[in-house]
Write the structure tokens for this entry.
Amino acid sequence: MISTISISSHSGMGAIPYDGGTAFRVWAPFAHGVSVVGSFNNWTQDRNPLTSEGNGYWSADVPNAKIGDEYRFALVNRDTDKTYSRNDPYAREVTHSSGNSVIHDPDFDWSSENYTMPSWHEMVIYEMHVGTFYDEPGGAPGKLEGIVQRLGYLQDLGINAIQLMPLAEFAADFSWGYNPANPFAIEKIYGGIREFKELVKEAHSRGIAVILDVVYNHFGPSDLDLWQFDGWSENGKGGIYFYNDWRSKTPWGDTRPDYGRGEVRQYLRDNALMWLEKCHVDGLRWDSTVNIRTLNNGSGGDIPEGWSFMQWINDEIDAKQPWKLTIAEDLQNNEWITKDTGAGGAGFDAQWDSSFVYPIRNAIGTLNDCDRNMYAVCDAINHRYGTDCFERVIYTESHDEVANGRSRVPEEIWHDNAGSWFSRKRSTLGAALVFTAPGVPMIFQGQELLEDKWFNDQDPLDWKKLETYCGIHDMYRDLIRLRRNWYNETKGLCGQHVNVHHVNNNDKVIAFHRWENGGLGDDVIVVANMADRSYESYNIGFPSEGYWRVRFNSDWNGYSPDFGNYPGYDTTASWGAKDGMSCNGNVGIGPYSVLILSQDN
């Protein structure tokens, strides 16, 4: 028997459970008939038709459809009468990427959450991949629950923000996540959206923010029910959700969303706000924004509606939840990415900084000391996009920088010998610069374990390295705590200001001053020796006279038994101009080492 169904009075898209049934709403402007089929009607196409709302949307209330039922939409194209079976574009849960949508229970108990997001200038980000972070080799990928089990470890390390590589349902079981097939659903093999909310809640209970990587530059291209969703397309392209001309092409397939179509913009906007509002995530990291705003990685012309789309989303987030963060991966050294939308910028809070990672990796990876360019290191430390130094995220390892033909930093320093003295010394030298230069520091999972080789979505972290390289782990922990001013002795590392006052390109030594307001416990001096030699008494400028304590010496043999433990002694700075500063003092420093000094409060 065919039901007589009116337009639904329930707001929302996709499956909307209510007391006694479920409402369904879908956008299909080129269909002349739409119905919902599922386990609640024995998958019978004519049992529960939807009614056109007159604007391309179709909806109906289905009294017997309940949470947990599987379903799909049957769409009859108006020109061909061909019927298309499609998953719900808004499905919060699917059986798998080529399976069925599932009516999801939206209720979740957040009542016990008592959480304040870490301040942006004190944040330390840990980028991770769910499938490999905490898992055993072989078998299925790791799960969200594995991260929950290791949150205590991350908290002790000093991490106060985790950034998850994309979680949207993708084809097959193993993936980096940058091939979303069902953008509103969490990858089933990871555990699903309820498990994701549990992770967020547990992270927040430990003071750890959660940032989610989202992909709006393309979808799929595999297992993609959005493709020619209601049967319409032009030029053999993707139909209503995609550009149907030359603008469809991306480095990953012809699946760039049509940012100029209002319904598509709304779809992407709803996705971004779902993560922030329904899942309580603290920020979004946007993948490859250059491929939202331009064609062909920036070399093929602008997409103006892509730029305005990013502005629109960022404006809405700022209006609704201004404390939450949006981070762009643009990597084109474009200061307009983080300018306010009122000035014409895209409105992101920060962006990954290619002007830091590439010169720093080059400096620590170069074989011969004489080839290290300290002026390039100076520029990397000084670089910023605007007046706020925290508009950049700085790192030496990320998922991209340790794959795609590249390797982990210790591996690049010495191929097949990542545990070597040189690899340990120079990779941690780079990490020390990450935690002392102005910007928001980020490390990639396992970096603190001296993980080797390269990132592979079927190769879990080797947690045995935590024992093998326990001292390297402790070095990262100490650096993170100093960066966060854990002991109220290094406030300047959280500050806006930097002065690279000493650059010795001949001997490969650099020193810089960090501060917020200046004074005791605020002024910080960082000295980096990027050559394989030691100095018993090396003279540099200091901002004030008096006693300066060494808070960190990367050559301490507690970090590794074969480190030289070269005495990076406390020093007294005296009046006498040096390096453009009013005072000077001597320091001792070992090879490929970093010192951090400050004065007692």
